[in-house]
Design brief:
The protein is mainly α and 214 residues long. The chain has one domain. The chain has nine helices and no strands. Helix 2 packs parallel to helix 5 and helix 5 packs antiparallel against helix 6.
Length: 214
């Protein structure tokens, strides 16, 4: 039986994020940020998948088909982890709530999402290095982070979810084709995807450097 290890230091942060959200409802009667609790759960899913993949690939009766399906599911869900950083767009929507309170709520939630993103991506990179050289691994990781960035764009601006590839794939495909068929003057998708890519790549490298030189 596989065991998912949740670092002890992240648990108090989760408690803080959840408590702040509950207090927001109790004190001000506002449920507008309750969706962040769901986003935290979604951020945890790719971490679970990558943890299982990391253990599964070391099994003697390793099945490539099952592993490939797991990798596809991971790729579909991993954008949900860093997606939480875009929830700052809602900051200040409810003026009756102190701005600092919402900043702390969003910040604690973002830390959770980014941690699961960093750790899950680190799992996948470790798996890739088992088969490919460091240069090829770096290239593959760059492509993965670019796809994650584009996935966040699809979620934030076009409101698609990870499961839409199964239940709303026609609309998803049409919208993606529409994006790349637009004129070059409509560069919003490239701007946001590019900025997210730089942010996620640089911060992931900083995370790797910190744990490898700890």
């Amino acid at each position: 039986m596989y065991k998912i290890i949740i670092p002890k230091f992240i648990i108090p942060i989760v408690i803080v994020a959840v408590t702040l959200n509950i207090l927001r409802v109790i004190i001000w009667g506002k449920v507008s940020f309750v969706f962040i609790l769901w986003n935290i759960i979604l951020a945890f899913i790719p971490y679970v998948i990558s943890s299982l993949l990391l253990v599964y690939i070391k099994k003697e009766n390793f099945n490539k088909i099952i592993f490939t399906i797991g990798c596809i599911l991971w790729l579909l869900f991993i954008p949900n982890a860093p997606y939480i950083i875009t929830d700052f767009i809602h900051l200040g929507d409810t003026r009756s709530i102190p701005l600092l309170f919402d900043i702390l709520l969003l910040f604690s939630s973002t830390i959770i999402g980014l941690y699961f993103y960093f750790r899950s991506l680190f799992h996948i990179e470790h798996i890739i290095t088992m088969k490919y050289s460091s240069k090829t691994t770096s290239l593959i990781m760059g492509v993965i982070i670019l796809l994650i960035s584009f996935g966040i764009y699809l979620g934030r601006f076009l409101r698609f979810n990870s499961w839409d590839i199964f239940f709303n794939h026609i609309s998803l495909a049409k919208n993606i084709l529409k994006i790349f068929s637009r004129s070059s003057t409509d560069f919003g998708v490239y701007l946001y995807t590019g900025l997210l890519f730089l942010f996620l790549l640089l911060f992931y490298r900083a995370y790797k450097y910190s744990i490898q030189n700890d």
